[in-house]
Amino acid sequence: MSWNQRTQKSVRQPISHSKHLPIMNKLPGFLLSCLLAFIAGHLVNYSIIFLAIDWFESPMLAGIGYGLCFGPPVILGWLAGAYCDRYSPRRVILIAQNAFLISLALLYVALDSSSLVQVALLLVAAFFAGVGWSFVSPARFAALPAFIAEDKLTAGTIALNLMVMSGFGIAPMLVKNVAVNYGYQGVFIIGALMFVVSSLLLALLQYHPESSVITSEQASNDGAQQRQVNEPSLWQQVRDGWRVMLQPGMVKPLLLLSMITYLLMGPMQVLLPVIAEQQLHLTETAQGNYLSLVAFSLIVGGLLSMASRNLGKLGWQLNLSLLVAAAGLGSLALITNLTLSVLVLLGSGIAGGMAISLIVAGLNQMCDSAYRGRVMACYTIIGQVIPALSGVFSGMVAQVYGAQYSLMIAGGVIVTLVLLAIFTLTQITRLDHFQQISMVKDLEHASVSK
């Protein structure tokens, strides 16, 4: 019996079986809570980017702020994964979302501060947002199995990823429209309210009776007399997670491919606002709508992946989708016609949405439930750190050479990496369907032998 199975009962059972909390039930309520949190989280990110450009006309500062939003997971993300496997992911989420409230409060104070103080508050707010993302993202994926039947996990993971992409797309449109009509004070108040409602919904949700968490609790009850063992330290759990992810199988190549995929996100978030303003000459409201097309197309791609995952040849679906997404991103630097730019952006986003949805669904299905928190933490670290680094680099290149040149470089680099992946990550190229793979037996054997 794993530590994850033994501790879930003690931490989670009082909430999941409480007769005093009728409230919302299972997956729909969980997805709504996620959607509100992801909209509000990306609202913080985009506010930092937009304010850096509006206040200081600095793509570099926007890139640094974006980097701080997703930099802390490099260290904290590993701890978050271990916490999610050791304790209740729901509790991790409820605590971590307070970091976003601190970030919003700092941004609110910055509105009436001097320029020097604004820079400091902007960057500190970005750091607190990064702390929040470090824990909230992996905990959301780790918590999902508690709210869905075990045999529906792949479809549920894609649905959760759609909430992630919806938040990514709704946020810029919301920021721009609210800022135009009510100022950034209104933006920050709306963001705070979303986090409060999200936390309340999550705290009052019931677990699905056929979820893997309930199954684990029942098994834990049956083996209650066998649980008196020495438990691993938090650091040992982190190390065990690394060893699981490095073992032969599909998890490691899927994580590597996700690194290439998330290189797309940094240039999109940092450079597309500049392209929309300076190259397409859009108004503020139109800029928000243009940027929201990214998420709309990602959502469409995610929906398409729910059908395409049953068609086979998943490896080629992944690789070709990434090629289309990267080529489309780079070509946006050369397009000045709004209609054509919108069409290319939609095509690129749909392809990227298909790729990332298939990757995250494969990871969540192929990893063992006892290590799901740590595997998904690694995925979310990649999904936060890689865009942050690519965003910082793209912002620096744009500061010197312009946004168009920077966007072309980003597209070219990603196309090259995808072509390399086709020939080197042969496990991906040969992948036909997702299959459940146990990665724990060798690790448990090695641990016992020690």
UniProtKB/TrEMBL annotation:
**Do the record's keywords include Membrane?**
yes
Q: Which UniProt keywords apply?
A: Cell membrane, Membrane, Transmembrane, Transmembrane helix
A single GO molecular function term of this UniProt record = transmembrane transporter activity
On whether Transmembrane helix is a keyword of this UniProt record, the answer is yes
Instruction: Tell me which residues make up the Major facilitator superfamily (MFS) profile domain.
Output: 21-429
Species of origin: Thalassotalea mangrovi
Tell me the SUPFAM superfamilies matching this sequence. MFS general substrate transporter
* InterPro entries reported in the protein's UniProt record: MFS, MFS_dom, MFS_trans_sf
Would you tell me the protein name for this molecule?
A: MFS transporter
